[in-house]
Amino acid sequence: MIEHTTRVARSAFAGHRVAAIILRHLYVMRTSWPRVLEMAYWPTVQMLVWGFASQFFAQHSSWVAQAGGVLIGAVLLWEVMFRSNLGFSLSFLEEMWARNLGQLYLTPLRPHEHIVALTAMSLIRTIIGLTPPSLLAIALYKFNIYGLGLPLLAFFANLMLTGWCVGLFTSALVLRFGMGAESLAWVLIFGLSPLSGIYYPISILPHWLQTVAYALPPAHVFEGMRAVMFDGVFRWDLFTNALTLNALYFTAFTAFFLFMVHVARKKGLFLNMGE
Prior knowledge:
Layout: H1 2-11, H2 15-30, H3 33-59, H4 63-67, H5 70-97, H6 101-104, H7 111-141, H8 150-177, H9 184-191, H10 193-196, H11 207-213, H12 217-231, H13 236-267
């Protein structure tokens, strides 16, 4: 009789149990602002990028036909920035997932040495990740991004630096706020895409937004890429602007990361990090 009653109780649908699970996830969301932000973030970014792109294409219908492989080149260069950020952030997060970060900082490893190691791993991951698609672009679309020559190295270096800046910033936030902020490794880098002018020139943005865009290194890099591909001219002014901004951001975010390591040590945050 008791077994039958228990079986019926288990098989019956209970709304309070469903409500308990929902409440549990709502509590998690309430205490993790990055999770809440992420829900509206992705649709908003996609709408902005393709909204500006469609607006530009509508006003310049012949642009795509004349541009040839410019969109493919833009995609590949965007992946440089995205992969450099992800390579940096993932190398950092993997230590946290393995609960190894605290042990690392108990060794003689200095935080600035850790940064150098993370940038090196980011470079390795980026090269491994981008070599196959760049070769496929030659085979499938007859587009050789290596044909850009020395300007490609300038674009590559600047976008790598930008990715490292974002990686430093997100890693510092994860140090401070824990694993609830790990999604920022993907979120923040995509937030730059509408302002980077990947598929359209910065001039298509509203005037007030152009000022914000030009405060970011990628806008100068992608404008420089179009100058090389359309006009055959390497814009030294755009290269210098991107390099200067990257140097400023990299210095600032390195200092921010080192400060967060100091805070994590003082507050004992290393002991509670992991999956």
